[in-house]
Write a structure and sequence with these properties.
Elements lengths: L1 E14 L12 E7 L2 E5 L10 E9 L6 E8 L7 E9 H5 L5 E6 L12 E10 L4 E11 L12 E7 L2 E4 L10 E9 H4 L6 E8 L7 E9 H6 L2 E7 L16 E13 L6 H12 L9 H8 L5 H13 L12 H30 L26 H24 L7 H17 L8 H20 L13 H18 L17 H18 L23 E10 L11 E7 L3 E5 L8 E4 L3 E6 L10 E7 L5 E7 L3 H14 L9 E2 L4 E2 L2 E2 L10 E2 L5 E2 L8 H14 L1 H21 L7 H41 L11
Helix pairs in contact: 6-7, 6-14, 7-8, 7-10, 8-12, 9-10, 10-11, 11-12, 15-16
Length: 797
């Protein structure tokens, strides 16, 4: 039984941050680490002690994690960035809140000794004879230690301590992945064999000048060794003690939203009955008033979980073995559906015009109360511009931008994903059947445009970064332009029906172009729904997108390693890359005709590269295997950590079904017949992270995981369904039998029929929930029976 771990976090805002710059302000941004790996970096909010980010992330972590840490940094143009403070949340703390954390949390100081990371591989064994008891500690290796030296590495050695006894390994210089293979021995009789004591294994960075730097420790109770004479495995290195201090709020605070979702996934066959019921309700819809499994599911979902359930249903219906057709799903489901299948389409249509707005950075304002004449001197060459000139210039610029946006949208019918068009067609059809009157002619258009414009395109224009259209948030000037354009596009999506009824009368100069756009919008929507469902190709099982669709593209620095040659940082050359579900191709420029490509089916690992390998940050490696079984490595450098995580995640997703994936890799480069990371010549390295990905629209479909979430919601609402549809109706039936017979009224017969159908639907659904509950119990019992080995849960990995 597999385990799916997903971590959702949103960095909302900060308050009362300390000033780090001479100007009396700071330029804060956040770095997020899961254990020792940087998974996200927010945008920098310049000159602000109360920054707002509003950035959210989803991380899929099949192997689990220990700690989620948020660092608040102050960006400096010259020199190193300053550390303001941090917030660390253990997995246990997050898991203790099933609905998630949503709080202001004070920042704590960052103590270098507390910033430990990595693991150590040990084998400890007690040797007893008539004369003495000895502890043999085989120190094998360590991995991913914290860099303490300016070179980005450390000079680690290990020390084992018991009471007043100690022993040390040799020092291995310039590595974060040391390999010792040394056995240390302590005579416990000399130190006092106390079963209540513990053996401490410490890792230190040796320094020629000054004191050594602490790298972490492992504490093993001696009682464990008495029960299990041989204890072997990888152990997580821990800080020296719990000295974290929130500084009494003096370092400011962050508002965070964090939620952990951990699911144990059964084999597929156990979920088929539930999937069949969910799909049946969509493929063969019943009468409007009749209950379905979907309506029962809606009754038991909470407000907090509704968006997640909506996205889950969307993914179930996007599976190639099911068909997505319109039904009375909540608007959240439609919104999540459009993000899931329409993100590439959104980028193709909007990105050019969004980039243009950011590059031109024009001053635009229509509200007389907000016009600042000091910001717009370039509008007139005769001196300061008047308010009328500012408004006239702003109207012209907004009309130009809005025209470009509308032209891009109405000419994009062929670019729109077929599955999205099919859904809009079904929605159009259902609304037309429900409102056939001539006075409701516009309702069928409003139903589609409400989702298309108001829930997808307008929000993307308002906050391009949240839709991956830009790497950073807009500045104040550009943000105002985007807001005005989003307002105008919302009016277009409403077909201009609400113009003149709001408080913002200063938007009136845009009314003519909005009204002129209505006809083209209706024509666009008519073309959008003009599609034959039977001719729509089903998406491949491995992804939402078609093979020919570019999942991600952009410039990267590339170096390909062939043999044990010396690799230098200047050998990286700029190339433009395209990623699809079939290949990773590249060329000198986007317009270059000749492209080289790496078949995705040959990818067997996609991993980060240690900074020390090339003295460069944000480098990843794509390891491929040719037809003869030989491994080849392509090194790629990204411009920042967010881009690195996005490329890692995207390539891992398209290669997730590949065979022959490597279980381990080297985070360094092979140079001088040895690896720069561990200084060893062999190929065996550290474990791969092939399943760790960022959650986004390109997540591979996993019907089992999605159905497990639906089951969990139904399990939590089982008592409510049983009471409402089974117990209550049994009482009603008994009361009706006791009542004297009367002439049956058509309405009462109809109501009784609906009641019986509702009871049957609820009974079938609850039976499936019960079967799944029993299956989970059976598998968990088997796992408990099979796990007899001792595990030091707090430290061992």
């Amino acid at each position: 039984m597999a385990t799916n771990t997903s971590l959702y976090f949103r960095i909302v805002e900060g308050r009362n941050l300390p000033a780090k710059d001479v100007s009396g302000t700071s330029d804060p941004y956040c770095i997020v680490k899961v254990d020792n790996e940087v998974v996200a970096r927010t945008a920098t909010v310049w000159k602000n002690l109360n920054p707002f980010w509003g950035e959210e992330y989803t991380l899929h972590l099949p192997t689990g994690f220990h700690t989620l840490t948020f660092y608040v940094m102050d960006e400096d143009t010259i020199g190193h960035d300053d550390v303001i403070g941090k917030i660390s949340l253990s997995k246990d703390v997050i898991a203790a809140q099933p609905k998630g954390l949503d709080n202001w949390l004070n920042l704590s100081r960052v103590d270098p000794d507390e910033e430990v990371q990595g693991e150590i591989h040990l084998a400890l064994e007690l040797h007893r004879d008539a004369q003495r008891t000895c502890l043999h500690c085989h120190v094998i290796e360590a991995r991913d230690l914290a860099p303490r030296d300016i070179s980005g590495t450390s000079d680690p050695f290990t020390r084992i301590i018991y009471n007043n006894l100690s022993a040390e390994t040799s020092i291995i210089k310039k590595t974060r992945f040391p390999h010792w293979d040394e056995t240390l021995e302590l005579c416990l009789d000399e130190g006092g064999d106390d079963e209540g004591g513990s053996v401490t294994v410490e890792v230190w960075d040796w320094d020629m000048v000054g004191k050594n730097d602490f790298l972490g420790k492992v504490e093993i109770p001696l009682s464990c060794l008495h029960r299990s004479p041989l204890l072997q495995g990888w152990f997580r290195l821990m800080p020296p003690g719990n000295t974290e201090d929130d500084a009494g709020g003096k370092l400011g605070a962050l508002r965070l939203k964090v939620r952990l979702a951990e699911e144990r996934i059964l084999p597929s066959l156990y979920y088929q009955p539930l999937i069949e019921q969910l799909v049946e309700a969509v493929i063969s819809p019943s009468e409007v008033d009749d209950p379905t499994p979907l309506t029962l599911l809606e009754e038991v979902t909470t407000v907090e979980s509704r968006q997640d359930v909506a996205m889950t249903l969307v993914k179930i219906y996007l599976d190639p073995n099911t068909l997505f057709r319109s039904n009375s799903l909540a608007s959240k489901a439609m919104e999540q559906f459009m993000k899931a299948v329409g993100m590439l389409y959104l980028h193709e249509v909007l990105k050019p015009i969004i980039n243009r707005i950011f590059e031109e950075r024009k001053y635009i304002e229509l509200d007389p109360c907000k016009i600042d004449l000091n910001r717009c001197r370039r509008i007139s060459f005769k001196g300061s511009a008047s308010e009328a000139e500012v408004r006239e210039s702003s109207v012209g610029l907004l009309q130009t931008y809005l025209t470009s946006i509308m032209e891009a949208i109405v000419n994009s019918v062929s670019q729109c994903p077929p599955v999205m068009r099919v859904v809009f067609k079904q929605l159009h059809k259902r609304v037309e059947e429900q409102f056939p009157e001539p006075e409701n002619e516009d309702v069928k258009y409003l139903a589609i445009s409400g989702f298309f414009f108001l829930r997808l395109f307008a929000p993307a224009i308002l906050t391009p970064k949240l839709f991956q259209l830009r790497d950073h948030h807009a500045d104040t000037r550009t943000s105002r332009t985007l807001l005005l354009l989003a307002k105008a596009l919302q009016s277009v999506g409403n077909l201009g029906l609400q113009l003149g009824h709001g408080k913002e009368q200063w938007m009136t100069p845009l009314h003519p172009i909005i009204l002129c756009s209505v006809a083209s919008v209706k024509d666009f929507l008519d073309k959008l729904v003009d599609i034959d469902h039977d001719n729509v190709c089903e998406a491949p099982q491995r992804a939402v997108f078609l093979p020919s669709v570019i999942v991600k593209e952009g410039f990267l620095q590339k170096h390909k390693a062939e043999g044990p040659q010396l690799l230098k940082r200047f050998t990286f050359k700029k190339r433009h890359f395209w990623l699809s579900s079939e290949s990773l191709s590249y060329a000198k420029s986007p317009d270059w005709q000749v492209r080289s490509s790496i078949p995705i089916q040959r990818v067997c690992a996609v991993e980060r590269v240690d900074e020390n390998a090339f003295q460069l940050q944000n480098v990843m490696q794509v390891i491929t295997q040719d037809t003869e079984g030989q491994l080849h490595t392509t090194y790629l450098q990204c411009k920042n950590v967010n881009e690195l995580n996005q490329w890692l995640s995207a390539i891992r997703k398209v290669s997730i079904y590949n065979e022959h994936m490597l279980p381990s890799f080297h985070p360094g480069a092979h140079r001088g017949n040895k690896w720069t990371c561990c200084l060893q010549p062999d190929r065996t390295g550290v474990r791969t992270h092939s399943a760790v990905t960022l959650g986004d629209w390109s997540d591979p479909l996993d019907p089992d995981a999605e159905t497990q979430m639906v089951y969990k919601e139904l399990l939590q609402g089982r008592d409510k369904l049983r009471k409402q549809y089974l117990e209550t109706q049994e009482m009603e039936t008994a009361e009706q039998e006791e009542m004297p017979l009367k002439a049956s009224q058509p309405s009462s017969v109809s109501a009784q029929g609906r009641s019986e159908r509702a009871r049957a639907v609820a009974a079938r659904l609850l039976d499936v929930v019960l079967d799944l509950e029993r299956a989970h119990s059976t598998f968990q019992s088997r796992e408990r029976d099979e796990s007899g080995a001792f595990i030091l849960t707090s430290q061992r990995t």
